[in-house]
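Appendix B, example 12.
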Amino acid sequence: MVGLKEELLKSIWHAFTALDLDHSGKVLSHNLCTVLNVPHDPVALEEHFRDDDEGPVSNQGYMPYLNKFILEKVQGNFDKVEFNRMCWTLCAKKNLSKSPLLISDEDAFKVWVIFNFLSEDKYPLIIVPEEIEYLLKKLTEAMGAGWQQEQFDHYKIALNTSREGLSAWELIDLIGSGQFSKGMDRQTVSMAINEVFNELILDVLKQGYMLKKGHKRKNWTERWFVLKPNIISYYVSEDLKDKKGDIILDGNCCVEALPDKDGKKCLFLIKCLDKSFEISASDKKKKQEWIQAIQSTVNLLRVGSPPPHKEARQKRKELRRKLLAEQEELERQMKELQTANENKQKELETVRKQLEAAAARAAEEEKKRLQTQVELQDRFSLELEREKMVRQKMEEQVAQKSSELEQYLQRVRELEEMYKQLQEALEDEKQARQDEETVRKLQARLLEEESAKRAELEKWHLQQQQTIQMTEAEKQELENQRVIKERALQVAMQQLEQLELERKEALEQYEEVKKKLETAANNTKSWKDKVAHHEGLIRLIEPGCKNPHLITNWGPAAFTEAELQQRQKSWKGKKTTSE
């Protein structure tokens, strides 16, 4: 995207510089938005467009608006030829030479576009002699003529003495003058310019007529094939007006030769992921050239390299930058050496002058030294005596200060001893406080435990009182039940006594009945013999069991003595259980 922006800027620079500076930004912006398929924003144009003294395309003037509102929105979906033609239309009328040229306006336009491609990336735009030589060689080769290196060397020498390179309009004049195409007619020059334009600008690596086999009808049709870095387009004719299809190339494609078949010769096959295309060249040479060109294109796609002419241009620019950098470095080193030499010369001259001045000063100072030496000796003698007296006083003061220092040191040692004792006392006090704090915490913990124990005892006491109250209540209830049961037992004993009386009465009655039965038995005894032989017809009434029967409220002979004893045991057991 950066390379595309630089290419666009070169054409825009020509158009901008050719227009009236007061209205060039507005006019150019409308045209650029149209050909680049970018939405136009007139409000932003009025806000950002400023005239600038530094140049028409600069960071302070039109450049911020151009970058932000036009170039950053370019997606690449525009016609580069139409874009260049719009810029050419805006600048050609003002800059194109009025003198007659051997090339047409259309050829001049193509040379102008080629200039923008080969020019240096600095403004004002120029094309350096190396690129001029490259372009003229391409044109000469396309025209089928021989390259005249000696002629160009003379031209290059003359050019280097006056300037660094040529402008676009000077390059058009050079090619249009026929200086390097003598003996060639206008049509040959035009075809050469068109061929170089197709290669350098339209990225046409190869083009020509070949036969293509159809996918549906399987018939062979002549088509004009155009090979570009990532695609092969085929048209009805070389005017490129009726496009029939494309063959998309990528790193997975391959091309291989095929044997002659179906009456067709010089066959080769282009294999892609989704389709394969059978092509028939006009001869073996063309076949081999197309195979090599397509294979080279696929190889470049695999490694991600640009087209050969763009890669060569980049290498030439890098070489020029390297040579320029080396030349600048050499010039810089020469300047540094020259500057260092001049500095050394200046330093030597300065040192010589300093030595002469130092020698003069040394002689003058020697005279002054001899004059002042005698004065200094007398002065030193007086100073010596004075120093002796001062030294004696200083020794006395030093002795006094030593005594005071000794006393001071003694005092310091005493203070240090007192400080140590004070530190020990403070440590003891700190330890005592810690012990006191420990004892206080222990007492607090014991008090808490005692409070907890007391609360627990009170709880147990309360539970015991509640239990005693519950036991008293149960005891009272049992006492009431016992009284009730005793009363029931008394009632039962009374009933038993009443039953005993009734039993006795029943026994008396039983004795009376027994006597009556014995009497009746004696009365009926005489009848036994009478009815003995009639035993099957009549049964005599016999007396019951001789054991005494008990009489109850339910009647005589209700239960025996054993049953009464069993029932008494049962009553006693129930009474014991209830108590």
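The CA atoms of residues 165 and 462 lie 120 Å apart. The first strand starts at residue 206 and ends at 213.
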